[in-house]
Amino acid sequence: MEWDWNFVWDIMPQLIDGVIITIKAALMGSIVAMIIGLVWAILKRSQNKIVSKLTGYFVEFIRGTPLLVQLYFLFYILPDLGLLLSPLVAGVIGLGIHYSAYTAEVYRSGIDNISKGQWEAAKACNFSPRQTWSHIIIPQAVPPIIPVLANYFIAIFKETPLLSAITVLELMNQARSVANYSYRYLEPMTMVGAFFLIISVPSVILLRRLERRYSRRA
Amino acid sequence: MAEWSGYLFLILKGAVTTVELTVLGCMLAFVMAFLGGLGRLSRHFILRAIATTYIEFFRGTSIFVQLFWAFFVLPLIGIPLSPFLAGTLALGLNIGAYGAEVVRGSILSVPREQNEACTALNFSSWQKMRYIIMPQAFILMLPTFGNNAIELLKGTAVVSLISIADMTFQPQVVRSQTGNTTMPFLTILVLYFLISLVISTSVRGLERRLSQGLDVTKA
């Protein structure tokens, strides 16, 4: 089968539509993952043994099961329970929760690096737990781990094609629909790979720069 | 609920496929990890270039895209692959690329004096690798290899999309036949988790056995 550039230009608008959805899903998924991950990390340090143990098991469970199955779970089962989600929203929640299990570990490493004196000082100043977290711990724990978190943004971005399985019209799905009515797989599938490289390679370079900047400060 | 046992059988059959894919994929990934990792550390520029291209390509695109590419595009250029073979190849090569970085990092983290001692004792480079560097580096690799194996297990779910009847595929069969959604999906979630527990505990056991008698500082 010959590579046909005209066909590539013909399908370009449709693929670009897909790229936009892909980027949107990745960005929103990352934001969800960053927020929920922090929640897990804080809950895991809770004084209450039951809360911290349960959080630990739950996070372990999310890490041990495939994202695709979790997406199916959200997409097929939540409607049965009366919670109707649009495919994109279900996808974003799925991506976010799955990767929150990973970002939680990153936050944990950042929090563990805070010296004990900071906690004691917060206690000495009569800070409430909320104040301790928001004024003392998080502002110190988060900046050093930003490059690692950004790594997970790239990981999330690469997982977005899975959303096509729950009918989100992202890049992969657009390519498949193009392929299905034109019976040409070579160009759409290869273009999907190319788009991913075009976006992920500059992000990696940006990431290296981010890493250098934050490591200099430390 | 009575017919549930029949469907459970269907899901367990899928589980066998998933385990097969995981084992075969892990074997391929293991080989590729060492080839890629040692290739990146090679003295020859060409070997380094090939290894780097392999690693960056497979880490830069997602397993999903690679799988579809292997399944839909390779037959067009004259390499027909069965779905199962395409799945094993894509999974093994993908996770192998991640493993290669682990191999490289672990070998580099063996202290330099060990290398110098080998030179002082006139070891050949094969002897150095086999008897001095690898036994120490391998223990460092194990925990991350365990994580990678779990990633591979989770990656196998994607093959259901190229029509392999694995553990993620079967619940949809059950769903379309019975309309029962919650039970099959919950079952496979638990099964996946159990398999990943098996992987993580056996890797931990292996780690304990291999580090016996070795003076490895545990973090």
Largest sheet of chain B: none
The CATH topology of the domain at 19-166 in chain B corresponds to MetI-like fold
Whole-number radius of gyration of chain B? 21 Å
Low-confidence stretches of chain B: none
- The tally of strands of chain A reads 0
- Mean of the pLDDT scores of chain A? 89
Question: Multimeric state of these chains?
Answer: heterodimer
- Shape descriptor of chain A reads elongated
**Structural class of chain B, please?**
mainly alpha
Number of helices of chain B: 8
- The geometry of chain B reads as flat
How is the secondary structure organized here?
The complex is a heterodimer of chains A (218) and B (219).
Chain A: H1 5-44, H2 49-64, H3 67-77, H4 87-112, H5 116-124, H6 129-159, H7 171-182, H8 186-217
Helix pairs in contact in A: 1-4, 1-6, 1-7, 1-8, 2-4, 3-4, 4-6, 5-6, 6-8, 7-8
Chain B: H1 4-40, H2 45-60, H3 63-73, H4 83-108, H5 112-120, H6 125-155, H7 170-178, H8 182-210
Keywords:
heterodimer; A: 218 residues; mainly alpha; MetI-like fold; 0% strand; B: MetI-like fold; 8 helices; flat
Offer a quick outline of the entry:
With 218 residues, chain A is mostly helical.
Fold and architecture overview:
The complex is a heterodimer of chains A (218) and B (219). With 218 residues, chain A is mainly alpha-helical. In chain A, 81% of the residues lie in helices and 0% in strands. Chain A has a single domain, classed as MetI-like fold. Chain A is built from eight helices and no strands. Chain B is mainly alpha-helical and 219 residues long. The model of chain B has no long low-confidence stretch (mean pLDDT 88). The longest helix of chain B is centred in the first third of the chain and has 37 residues. Chain B has a domain of 148 residues: MetI-like fold (Orthogonal Bundle), CATH 1.10.3720.10. In chain B, helix 1 crosses helix 8. Chain B contains eight helices and no strands. The interface between A and B is medium-sized, with 34 and 36 residues.
